[in-house]
Design a protein that fits this description.
alpha+beta, 4 helices, Aminopeptidase
Length: 155
């Protein structure tokens, strides 16, 4: 049984740990932690994190932010042993419902082009490519990368 709740500042350490574990798959193009508790707390000032928990532990998280008629989500992170079990889809559904409740008409996300499996996954969930953007993270990468912008209309 998975439940979803809003995170609070006390969850920042657990969120950072989960995100960093889930994003270890990106070490082929960048060597660093994805985030830390201070960054998570800072993000909570502009948006919020939704958490997926089972009866024992945190199994997933997603960052959501309202941007006028658009909702943005990022840092979708699932405990690696729980990936492929629908937790990510439940969190994206929760994010989209949050956006709808706030009056948003669109849900937006950004992925790194070298994570091609994410392009296919979000495509199955109704997201379409809307453009590209330079990779603006100040940390150097091992290979050239850029961002892919994706959106989905909400109804």
């Amino acid at each position: 049984m998975i439940s979803i709740r809003d995170a609070n500042a006390n969850d920042a350490v657990a969120i950072a740990r989960l995100v960093n574990t889930a994003f270890l798959v990106e070490q082929f193009f960048i060597e660093r932690d994805r985030t830390n508790p201070e960054v998570v707390r800072g993000m909570m000032k502009k948006g919020k994190f939704l958490l997926a928990e089972d009866e024992h532990s945190l199994v997933g998280s997603i960052y959501v932010e309202l941007r006028g008629e658009r909702g943005y989500f990022g840092m979708l992170s699932i405990e690696p042993s729980r990936q492929g079990m629908g937790v990510g889809h439940r969190l994206v559904d929760a994010a989209e419902n949050y956006f709808l409740d706030a009056g948003c008409m669109w849900s937006d996300l950004i992925i790194v082009n070298v994570r091609t499996e994410l392009l296919a996954l979000y495509g199955r969930w109704g997201y379409k490519e809307t453009g590209t953007a330079p990779y603006d993270d100040p940390h150097p990468t091992k290979i050239p990368v850029h961002f892919i912008l994706m959106s989905k209309p909400l109804s």
